[in-house]
Amino acid sequence: MSRRAWTQPHLFHIAIDRQMKQQGRKPMRQFLSSGLSLLRGVTGDDAYEKYLAHMQATDASQPLLSQKEFFRAQMEQKWSCVSGCC
Q1: What is d(CA 2, CA 15) in angstroms, rounded to the nearest whole number?
Q2: Measured between alpha carbons, how far is 70 from 12 in angstroms, rounded to an integer?
Q3: pLDDT in tens, 27-67
Q4: DSSP string spanning 32-74?
Q5: Phi, psi for 78 (deg, rounded to 5)
Q6: pLDDT at 20 exceeding the cut of 70
Q7: C-alpha triplet 80, 63, 52: angle, nearest 5°
Q8: Which end of the chain is more exposed for a tag (fewer CB within 10 A), N or C?
Q9: C-alpha R_g of the chain
Q10: CB 1 within 8 A of CB 19
Q11: d(CA 70, CA 64)
Q12: Residue 70 — very low, low, confident or very high, per pLDDT cuts 50/70/90?
């Protein structure tokens, strides 16, 4: 930005608009994508994708569970240790 753009407010806005167009909206998109990825990790929504990546990296000879089977097994494991009334 030129010195003139800083001294005249309307030129400042034009310079900022031009700079934003050059950069695009990538920083905002990256921020939102990172936030969504964090949210999926915290809630366990990406567990099946992590399972697939792990199984393909470690032992490709075993058959993979379907998404429905995977989540059913996760729920059974989670609730199998609960006994009695809370």
Answers
A1: 8
A2: 55
A3: 777 778 888 888 888 888 889 999 999 998 887 788 999 99
A4: HHHHHHHHHHHHTTTHHHHHHHHHHHH-TTSPPPPHHHHHHHH
A5: -65, -45
A6: no
A7: 75
A8: C
A9: 25
A10: yes
A11: 9
A12: very high
Question: Is the distance from CB of 12 to CB of 6 less than 8 angstroms?
Answer: yes
Q: What are phi and psi of 60, to 5 degrees?
A: -80, -10
Mean pLDDT across the chain: 76
pLDDT at 16 over 70: no
Residue 69: band (very low, low, confident or very high) from pLDDT cuts 50, 70, 90: very high
Residue the block writes with tokens 């199984």: 55
Tokens of 69: 């089977």
Q: What is the pTM of this model?
A: 0.55
Whose tokens are 């050059």? That residue is 22
Amino acid (one-letter) located at 13? H
Question: What tokens were used for 64?
Answer: 């993979």
Contacts of 50 (CB under 8 A, 6+ apart): none
Q: How far apart are CA 68 and CA 65, in angstroms?
A: 8
